[in-house]
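Fold description:
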Amino acid sequence: MTGTRRHPDPEGASAKQGAEAAVARAAGPAAPAPPAAAEAGPAAMAAVAGEAAESAGPRAAPAAPRATGPTAERGAGGPADEADGRAPARAAGQPEGFRSGFVALIGRPNVGKSTLLNQLIGRKIAIMSDKPQTTRTRILGVLNRPGAQLIFVDTPGIHKPQHLLGEHMVRVARRTLQEVEVVCWLVEAPDREPGPGDRYIAEQLVEVKTPKILVVNKIDQVAPGEVPAIAQRFAQLGQFAAVHPVSALHGVGVPELVEELEGRLPQGPRFFPEDMITDQPEAQIMAELIREQILHRTREEVPHAVAVLIEKVERRPNGVVYVPATIYVEREGQKRILIGEQGRMLKEIGRLARLEIEALLGSKIYLDLWVKVKPDWRNKQGALSNFGFRA
């Protein structure tokens, strides 16, 4: 599959740790990044929020990336020690002053983090739905620019967990905050003012010393004249280096956000190959595309009780890719809903997921779906581990 790279433990050592270790092994020892820029107060944020954002379409998709190659493992790494006069490690052909670093996308569930990630990368690497907690684990996306490499980390929505899976999701999000160069906190303009969930996240950010950018998303759903006041209300929740109003869906304000983020990254090496856009294994992406169709077509407790597992992908001599996938639910009633009358629901989910996967792989797909019951799997560590959620 193009555009993916396998990571040995998506929820153990972070992708940043792996990338920095690989660079350190190739370039020699390196010291910490320079201090972050000073953060601005609410007045400065209001001024930024008041600036008009120009519309921009989705960023052009990069050339088809490699599917294979060595997996990065994280360790120390980063810019070289400025005190001893050494310049940051630089690969052959890498321009002078090249910048690189990791950017976390955080926020409440369903604020548009995955939509923004897809817009930034120019390709669909994260599934989207109107259901809260669509993203369950961290998703890494790589944006390569002439003078920089920005690695975005889409995190599960920060919320008060109700089960073991929820605890895992929040733990992943919080851990990410400690491992990046910049934090982008997404809020929704249609909310018009902070709610309990936003205030909860603001409390979690108090101890985070990383520069924080407030991203006011979905400005296409409010009158332009309302945006500065809305941004100011959210900006009062903390100290932010900048405020950027955007429409992740339509690309409005996204180029300006990218410029802001690039300018805040330290000088450093390219962590990932130029032809790489995500570190997700192909089976994981395919499983998520199946789950996306389930999210679109089910309601109430069913979407949240679903896990999809693909244990193998078989490329047959006739060019067809055989993908057997098991959909796990927690109760027999949920299984009946997913299968539907005479299997119609499952057939439709399979048909639409197959089209998405074929578009991604550029190959003919035979998708073989099965539905099984695993009671209360969201509260069982063994089941979570089997589904790829690490403690």
The longest strand covers residues 99-107. The chain has two domains: 15-264, 282-386. The beta strands are 99-107, 139-145, 148-154, 182-188, 212-217, 242-245, 307-309, 314-315, 321-329, 365-373.
